[in-house]
Amino acid sequence: MLKPEILDPQGQAVQRALPRLGFEGIADVRQGKRFELEVEGPVDDAALARIHEIAETFLANTVIEDFSVKVEVGEGADTSAVKAES
């Protein structure tokens, strides 16, 4: 997600369009991106640290974006989905 101090013209355009489309009550819209990484095996502390490093150095532009890493248990017993959102 873009940092709060960074202008978000795409989010602003969506926010302005919502009332015209009949959607009221939305105070702010921020645009972002999401990556889903499927991890083989368990997502332990070492795997999470590696994924955090991937997000910080490659997936997110940390000059203008904040990011978060979330873990969701996959359908198969051997995989987990890790979502990196910025």
TrEMBL record:
Pfam families per the UniProt record, alphabetical: PurS (PF02700)
Sorted UniProt keywords: ATP-binding, Cytoplasm, Ligase, Nucleotide-binding, Purine biosynthesis
The protein's annotated pathway: Purine metabolism; IMP biosynthesis via de novo pathway; 5-amino-1-(5-phospho-D-ribosyl)imidazole from N(2)-formyl-N(1)-(5-phospho-D-ribosyl)glycinamide: step 1/2
SUPFAM superfamilies membership: PurS-like
GO cellular component annotations of the record: cytoplasm
UniProt entry tagged with the keyword Ligase: yes
Localization of this protein: Cytoplasm
GO MF annotation terms: ATP binding; phosphoribosylformylglycinamidine synthase activity
Catalytic activity, reaction form: N(2)-formyl-N(1)-(5-phospho-beta-D-ribosyl)glycinamide + L-glutamine + ATP + H2O = 2-formamido-N(1)-(5-O-phospho-beta-D-ribosyl)acetamidine + L-glutamate + ADP + phosphate + H(+)
Gene Ontology BP annotations: 'de novo' IMP biosynthetic process
Record EC number: 6.3.5.3
Phosphoprotein keyword on record: no
Functional description taken from the UniProt entry: Part of the phosphoribosylformylglycinamidine synthase complex involved in the purines biosynthetic pathway. Catalyzes the ATP-dependent conversion of formylglycinamide ribonucleotide (FGAR) and glutamine to yield formylglycinamidine ribonucleotide (FGAM) and glutamate. The FGAM synthase complex is composed of three subunits. PurQ produces an ammonia molecule by converting glutamine to glutamate. PurL transfers the ammonia molecule to FGAR to form FGAM in an ATP-dependent manner.
Family to which this protein belongs: Belongs to the PurS family.
NCBIfam families: phosphoribosylformylglycinamidine synthase subunit PurS, PRK05974.1
PANTHER family: PHOSPHORIBOSYLFORMYLGLYCINAMIDINE SYNTHASE SUBUNIT PURS
Quaternary structure annotation from Swiss-Prot or TrEMBL: Part of the FGAM synthase complex composed of 1 PurL, 1 PurQ and 2 PurS subunits.
Stated name of the protein: Phosphoribosylformylglycinamidine synthase subunit PurS
The organism's taxonomic lineage, starting at the top: Bacteria, Bacillati, Actinomycetota, Actinomycetes, Kitasatosporales
